[in-house]
Amino acid sequence: MATKKSTQNAISPELQSFIDEIAARYQPDPEALHRRIENAETRYNRYQNFTDIPARLVDKLQSLILEGWRFHLAGPASVIANPSMISVTLQKPLPLIEQELEALRVKTSETYHNELIDSMELAIDTLIAEAAEDARRQAEEQAIANQSAMRGQLRNLLKQGIV
């Protein structure tokens, strides 16, 4: 039974070489992944802007400062048209920054690998469509050839019946 199953699952050498070629073409590039992660870390914002009415914002700021958030005075200050609102920029606490950066690294890596898989699947789908089109064309050609052969045989039979 094992022999029967292995012969059913055997892949032709041509197909195996093609699969190897696709797998080699879509291997993850560690340098490209590293660049993507570096770009994501560079774009990561270590500061957060809070805007609210003063009474609510002061309560929120007190709890945030106790959690490790710090004022960021050197950053750009937002301009608010409403005089009853205030805006404050705080720097995130270091543990939160590290946690968010780690999540960002994982997300960037997953996105990169998913893009590779999607590209590989697109290439495979394209090749399957081409193979299906070739098979359809060959089937049509075979049907035309069979039809022509039948027509010739019928013509010969009819000629023999007339003569």
Note the topology.
Elements: H1 2-8, H2 13-25, H3 30-43, E1 47-52, H4 54-66, E2 70-71, E3 86-91, H5 94-162
Overall form: elongated
Distance between the termini: 59 Å
Going by helix content, strand content and strand pairing, the class is: mainly alpha
Please provide the ordered H/E string of secondary-structure elements: HHHEHEEH
How many beta strands in the DSSP annotation? 3
Uncertain stretches of 5 or more adjacent residues: none
Share of helix, binned: over 70%
Could you tell me the radius of gyration in angstroms? 34 Å
Major β-sheet strand ordering: 1-3-2
> What proportion of the residues form beta strands (DSSP E)?
5-15%
- Number of helices in the DSSP assignment: 5
Main pleated sheet: 3 strands, antiparallel
Question: What is the typical, i.e. mean, pLDDT?
Answer: 87
Explain what you see.
With 163 residues, the chain is mainly α. Helix content is 71%, strand content 9%. The chain has a three-stranded antiparallel β-sheet with strand order 1-3-2, covered by helices on one side. Helix 3 (30-43) packs across helix 5 (94-162). The protein is elongated. The protein starts with a helix and ends with a helix. 2% of the residues are buried. The model has no long low-confidence stretch (mean pLDDT 87).
How would you describe this structure in keywords?
single chain, 163 residues, 3 strands
